[in-house]
Task: structure prediction
Amino acid sequence: MREGLTYSDVLLVPQYSDIESRRNVSTHTRLSRRLKLHIPIVSANMDTVTESTMATRMAELGGIGIIHRFLTLAEQVREVAKVKRSHNFVIPDPYTIQHDSTLADVREAMYQRSVTSFLVVDQNNHLCGIVTPRDMMFEDGLDTPLSQMMTPFERLVYKEVGSYNEVDYEQARQLLKAHKLEKLPLINAERQIIGLITAKDIQKRLQYPQAIKDAQGRLLVGAAIGVKNDYLERTQELVKAGVDVLVIDIAHGHFKYLLETLSQIKSEFPQIDVIAGNVASAAGTRDLIAAGADAIKVGVGPGSTCSTRIVTGSGVPQLTAVMDCVEAAKGIPVIADGGVRYSGDMVKALAAGASSVMLGGLLGGCEESPGLTRIKDGQKVKVYRGMASYDAARNRQSAEKGYEVDLDSYVPEGIETVMPYKGKVHEVIGQLMGGLRSGMSYLGAHTLPEMVEKAEFVRISPAGWHESTPHAQYK
Ligand code: XMP
Result:
């Protein structure tokens, strides 16, 4: 019988280092066959971890978020679209509203689209004005016509262009600066809208130089799909909404239906990378790659809310699982999913060859995680729960067409809990990345691949683990 090890069973032996500053290491990595990240962190596709707010922040910080799938199709698509629209230098298809709308229509559209202003168009799609919160501030008659509130075309500053590609970032910045504008519509000679430049987008670009973006300057985002019910329809709609990577994951990913779904998605949507999982063995990894996976998500039961191993007796301690899968993956990126409790665990996972880590519990409880902040025993907390818990199953039933569950006989493989409120995710990521950078300098590694080469693990005893954790006692 082999022995399986996890993060707390090992340490990394420090190596000679010539790294003078932690800032001098590169944390760039691969998420999947074609996608790259600036930091090796993926926020988990869990309903208490990743929706658009978390995914936007993750991509701004250089990682990526995967929008969970316990949402209706329309909701999941909307979450993806929100991330894709959150950064641009030119928005090629700005939201518009018809000139004969009322204040009520504008408010409803703002709520539906989660934006605060619209370009106003006539029935021939000609720009006839712009409406922003300032225009509506003192209007309270819900049937007030938009034409009475908007800034009309005659008073607008706009730029005439042939196509939105004609304007690059620097030009966009100069145009806004020259006109001291917050919004600059781009139109063609027929007054039709070609794009929109906003000051907010320009500021964001300066604020997040690490952000992970597509060729059009939009943040990258992933979304999860399942292997049954509406997965094909979801995939089509998510791809239309601009999703950059799909995650097909189920608790036991070395599974006939998952392999069939994966092959089908890869043959129908070859343009998009697909991460598949979860597996914890070399054989599982090889089969997923043979079915077309562009990255392998590894982890059966290590997660902080998982009860899979207790309920089913199945799983592999996470460090061994990662090492086995990395070896079998032969260069296809592996995502170490679950069980990361400290930055040191992330360093160990990456040193073992994972290209990135997926985090649930460490990011649950952040300002950007979905869910309300509540007070429990005098402390601010947020709910964090396993996706195979009762509550998540109930949520899934109302979201996924065709999914039916009898909660009386449901056997959960996850628990519900609460996390202390942690504040903003950038602070949490800042701590984790600080730990990773230090960890790399302890191994003398300038890059993540170099860290894998230099890694020398040593097994430790329970006493070794005890010694490794702060243990000062004042008597
Ligand atoms: P952490 O440790 O970061 O783990 O909280 C997050 C990962 O846990 C997995 N996950 C589950 N596993 N039952 C399980 O056995 C569940 O209910 C469950 N929910 C999430 C998932 O892989 C996630 O990324």
In short: The chain is about 35% helix and 20% strand. The pocket of xanthosine-5'-monophosphate is lined by residues 44, 46, 251, 278, 299, 301, 303-306, 308, 337-340, 358-362, 386-389, 413-414 (CB under 6 Å). The mean pLDDT is 93.
